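Q: For a teaching session next week I want to show students how multiple molecules come together into a single three-dimensional assembly. I've collected the sequence lines for a complex. Could you give me the predicted C-alpha cells for the whole thing so I can convert them for display?
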Amino acid sequence: MNINTRPHNPADSAYSDRQMSVLEAALELLVNGGEKAITTAGIARAANCSKESLYKWFGDRDGILAAMITYQASKVRVSARLGGPAQSPQAFCAELEKFGIDLLTVLAGPTSLALNRLAIGQASLDGSALGKLLIERGRKAVRERALVLLQSGQLAGVLRFDDRAEAFDTLYGLIVGDMHVRLMLGEKVPTLANEAAQSAHMRQAINNFYLLYGREQI
Amino acid sequence: MNINTRPHNPADSAYSDRQMSVLEAALELLVNGGEKAITTAGIARAANCSKESLYKWFGDRDGILAAMITYQASKVRVSARLGGPAQSPQAFCAELEKFGIDLLTVLAGPTSLALNRLAIGQASLDGSALGKLLIERGRKAVRERALVLLQSGQLAGVLRFDDRAEAFDTLYGLIVGDMHVRLMLGEKVPTLANEAAQSAHMRQAINNFYLLYGREQI
DNA sequence: TTGACAGAGTACCGAACGGTACGGTACACG
DNA sequence: CGTGTACCGTACCGTTCGGTACTCTGTCAA
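A: Of course. Below is the structure for the complete assembly, covering every listed component.
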C-alpha cells in the first residue's frame, strides 16, 4: 500500500519527502504573506507541483492548512526530558530558565506566529478545527514538558505546591504575559528586542515564580 | 470637505447614528461568522443600506474594518476612575478584584474576541494596521486604567514597587495567563465556565500579586 | 518494448467578492 | 413647483480563488 493512499487523516503525521517539501513551501508562503498568500495555485507554483497532487494528498485547502500545523508541530517536537527527580537547586533553576527561554523563542518564532495567526483568524464562535489542532499538537507538548519539570522540582525539594497545573499556569503567565498576543497583533515587543532585555525579563519572571512557589520563605 | 452631517456631536463619536447602526450590524456579522462573513454585500444587506453608501462613508473594506474597531473601542470606554490616592486596603483590594473581573469579562466577550481574531488574522510580518489600531484604542485604555489603579495602591501604602509598568505586566500575566490566546483559538476555558471558578481564579491571582507586590511581608 | 502510473503543467469552470454605476425615492430648501 | 441631495436597491464588471479535467513526460516493472 502506498503512503499516498491515506491522505487526510489528522492523526497520521507521516508525510513523504515530497509532501514535506510542499508543506515547507506552504509554510514559507504563510510566514511571508499571511493567510491570504496560501492559495492552491501559489503553493503549487512555489513547490513546483501540480494542484491536482495537492488535492490528492491533502483533500482540500483546509486539509493543507491542517497538514501544515501537524507537520510543523512534528518538526518542533522538543526534546522532552524525562522527569529525573533529583538535581541540585542550581541545576533546576537553570533548567527552568532554559525552559522559559525556549518557550519565548518558540512563541516569538515567525512560523509559530504565522500558524497561530492562521488558526485564530479561522476561529469563530464554534470551536475552530485548526485551533483544536494547534492546541493538541503544539500547546500540550510544552505543557507536558513543563509539568514534568515542575514535578521534578517538587521532588527535588526546590518547589512547593499543591496543584501542578495551577503552578504551571502561574509560571506561564509570569513568563509570557500578554507578549504572545502583542506579537500576534504585529507589535514590536521591546522585551524580545535584545538578549539582555530578554534575559532580564526571564530572571524577573523566574524570581517571582520562586517567591510564590519556592520552598524557602522570603 | 467633511461629510460628517452631525455638527453638534460629542467630540468622541465621529460617526453618525446611521453609520453607527451600520457598524453595529457589521460587528454582529463578524461575531457570528468570523472575518469571512464581513462582505460588503453582506453588511449592506444586514444594515439595509447600499454598498455605495458603505464606500462613501468608509472608503473601502479596510476602512470598514478599521471603523469597526474604532467604534467598538469608543463604546467600551471604561469608566476611568481618577486615581484617588487614599483608600482603605480593603477598598483597594476590592477595586483591584473588580478590575480583574472587568478585564476577563472584556477579553472573553464575543465582540472583543472577534475583533482580536480579525486583527490577528490580518497581521503579517510587517505590522498590521488593524493590530496597531486595536492596541492603540483598546489595550492602552485598560493599561492606563490599571496603571492609575496601581499608583493609587502605592500611594495608599498597600503596594510596593519600583516600576509601575513591570508590576502591571505581572498583574496582567497572573490574571490572564494564556487564557486570552486559548479563547481566541476557540477553546472552552473552564476557568470562565461558572462564576465560582472565575472568582476562585481571580482570588488566586490577586493573592499571588499581593505576595509579590504587597507591602506587608509574609 | 510496452504498459501502467505518478505527477507536472495548463486550461477551464463556477462562485464569490470588491468596487462602480445607474435608476428610483424621499426629503429639504428656495 | 423645481432643484439638489442623500441614499437604497440592484445590476454589473473584473478579478481571484477553489476545485476539476485533460495532456504530456518521466519512471519502473514485466
